[in-house]
Structure formats: C-alpha cells, structure tokens
From TrEMBL:
This is Peptidase C39-like domain-containing protein. Residues 89-227 form the Peptidase C39-like domain. It comes from Stenomitos frigidus ULC18. InterPro entries: Peptidase_C39-like.
Amino acid sequence: MLKITVKTDTFFKKRLLGSSDLADSEKVLVSKGSSFAVTESAPDRNQHLLLKLASPLTAKDGTSKLQSVYAYDPHVKLEGDELPQLVKLNVPYASQLGNEQIVRDGQIWYDWRQCNTTSNTMLANYLLKGELTTKAKEQRLAEPESVYMRLVAKYGDTTDHDAQTKALKDLGIESYFSYTLSSKDVLLSLKAEIPVIAGFAYKSSGHICIIVGHDPVNKVWLVHDPYGTRHGASNNYDIGIGGAYDTYTYDTMQSIFWDQGGEAGWGRVVTSIKGKPTGLLTGL
C-alpha cells in the first residue's frame, strides 16, 4: 500500500483552495513527520495531490471526517511498492501539416485548422487498430486523416466538437467532449489504454492535441501535438518538428489545461468501442 509522509506542518484539504478560505470542517492540520496509508493518488492542479486515505481523518472542527483530500505536493512524500507507474500508450503519431484541404459550406479546411481532426484520427486509428489506415489504402487516399475528415465534414466544421463526436460514432466509437476533466479522469482513461483528446489554451482560438501518457517520476504528461513541438506554455512552436511524446510539465498543464477561463480539463471521454463499454464515466 502507498504511504504519504508529511515533511512540514501542513493541511490536508477537502477542496483546492487556500486553507484560510476553507471552513474548519474542510481541512485537517497534519504535523511534520506523520504518515498515513493511501489507497489512491493522482496529481492535480496547483501542485497538489489528490489522495484517498485508507482511514478518514477528523477535520479541524473535531466532528467532520475527511477521506479524499488534497495535499500540497512539496509538503509531502509519497512512498510504497504501488507508486504510480509510467503510462506510455503506443499511439502512432500524425502531423496535421500537409493534410488534404477540403471545402465545406465555403470554408476551406487548411491544414493549420485541422488539429482537431488529426488528433481524433490518431485516437480512432489507435482504438480501431489501424482501421483508418487500411481504409485509406483501399480508397487510394493519401493518409488516414483523409478518410476521417470526410466523416467529420458530413456533420460540421473540423473545429466542431459535436461533428467530431458524430464522426467517431460512425466508426463505432461512442464519446463526448467535457470541459471539466480532472487529472484523475485523464489518468483513468490512460490506465484503460484510451488516449485523451485535449483542448489546450493557445492564442485566441485554442489547440487540440492528444494525451498519450503520464510519467509520475519526472512529473510530466506525454502529448502528441499534431502541429509540432510547443515551447512549454508559450505560444511559440517548432512547427512541424517533433510533436510525438512531447513532455508537458505539471506547471505547463496547469497553465494551458487546468486553467482556462474558469473551466478546467477540456477533453474527450470514450465510453464504448464497437459496442464494448470502456468503464469510463459519463456526464463529466
């Protein structure tokens, strides 16, 4: 079992707020050197860990019990034989640059607009074990994106999440787009071997990539970025260079994924594949 050891006096908290903004029923003062058994752990926003304690603790009000708590990562040390392991899904990478350009309702789908389509193509081709690649060869199309973009165009623009949902459904993938994903939700999907389409803050329009892994030792998320290699949380890119398994630090993810105009964690949840439920939650 995991164990959390406290390195300095700190609070375990029910919500991700400063301790002074919480009621006594929502926080536990824990002292330096104390240790607690933990059954679940996941990285979360603002350098916090979301922990499920093996046994509840009594809150500062002397009555309330807290079992799922947030701990400030620099104040604690997580140990044990069941530490979170590296997740790195073998998702073939695709670049949006050089994609076929099509026209729908007078709108040209230039390749620089196709991050959503390319990212969802990577998702579908991985989940369907190369089905889009096979179809592209059968239809004498240049690449899997050419197959998938024609499905999307039946329902809307390449930037339209609802059109992407309907196109994926045509392929037998049931999913929905959420604006409130937590890190725990993302990790549950990755551990189920399902990548997560993610909407990141970028200039004024945003950008879509696909999260394909998590490295808890180096504290980074692994991202396939169809546009190239992004320089941290900046809007600067090495366009068309790299992009596969790009490492996004926790601080970068905090800036461009968890904090987006009051909403956090824009991403796609896959609920079934070819009629087989994935076990991931609905309604997030």
